[in-house]
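User: Can you recover a sequence for this backbone? Please restate the input before giving your answer.

Assistant: Of course. Working from this structure:
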C-alpha cells in the first residue's frame, strides 16, 4: 500500500461499500417482493374455495404423510400434481369425483400397501380440497417433479 491509502480512504471505502450493498439488497428485496406478488402468486384465481381447501389440508395434517411441491413427509405420494394425475386439467368433474372416491375408500385395507386414514370429510370439504389441489397444480415448478407419478 502506498501512503496515499489514508484512514479517510479506508473509511470511505467502508461506508461506500456498505451503502452500495445495502442499496443492492433493498433493490433485490423489492424485486423479489414484486415478483412474488405479481407473477409468482396466481392471485386472480385464489378463490374462497382454494383458501378453505388449504385450511382443510392444514387442519387434517395431510403434510404429515404427503409432500406438496416436495415439502413434507415422504410416507405417501406427492400431491402437488395429483390433480394432473387424476386428469383434472382435462376433465375437472371426474377428478373431483375421483378424489371423493379416494377419500371415502380409505383406509384401503389392502395388505402390503401403506394405509391412509379415514378423515370423514364432507363433500364440501373434499370439493374445497380439490380446488386447493387444482390451484396448486398450476404453480410453475419448472417441470418438477419430472415424472407425473412423482
Ligand atoms: C397417515 C398418513 C397419511 C395422511 C395423514 C394422509 N394420507 Fe393421503 N395417502 C397416504 C398413503 C399411504 C397413500 C398411498 C396409499 C396407496 O397407494 O394405497 C395416500 C394417498 C393419497 C392420495 C392418492 C394419491 C395418488 O397419487 O393417487 C390422495 C389424493 C391423498 N392421499 C390425499 C390426502 C389428503 C387430502 C390428506 C389430508 C386430508 C391425506 N391424504 C392425508 C397416507 C396419508
Amino acid at each position: 500500500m502506498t501512503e496515499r491509502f489514508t484512514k479517510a480512504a479506508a473509511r470511505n471505502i467502508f461506508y461506500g461499500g456498505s451503502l452500495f450493498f445495502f442499496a443492492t439488497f433493498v433493490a433485490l428485496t423489492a424485486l423479489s417482493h414484486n415478483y412474488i406478488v405479481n407473477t409468482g402468486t396466481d392471485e386472480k384465481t385464489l378463490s374462497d374455495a382454494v383458501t378453505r381447501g388449504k385450511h382443510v389440508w392444514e387442519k387434517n395434517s395431510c403434510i404429515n404423510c404427503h409432500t406438496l411441491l416436495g415439502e413434507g413427509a415422504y410416507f405417501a405420494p406427492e400431491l402437488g400434481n395429483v390433480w394432473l394425475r387424476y386428469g383434472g386439467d382435462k376433465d375437472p368433474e371426474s377428478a373431483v369425483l375421483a378424489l371423493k372416491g379416494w377419500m371415502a375408500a380409505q383406509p384401503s385395507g389392502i395388505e402390503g400397501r401403506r394405509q391412509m386414514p379415514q378423515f370423514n370429510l364432507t363433500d364440501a370439504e373434499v370439493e374445497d380440497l380439490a380446488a386447493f389441489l387444482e390451484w396448486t397444480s398450476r404453480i410453475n415448478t419448472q417441470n418438477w417433479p419430472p415424472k407425473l407419478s412423482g
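That completes the design. The domain at 46-137 is CATH 1.10.760.10 (Cytochrome Bc1 Complex; Chain D, domain 2).
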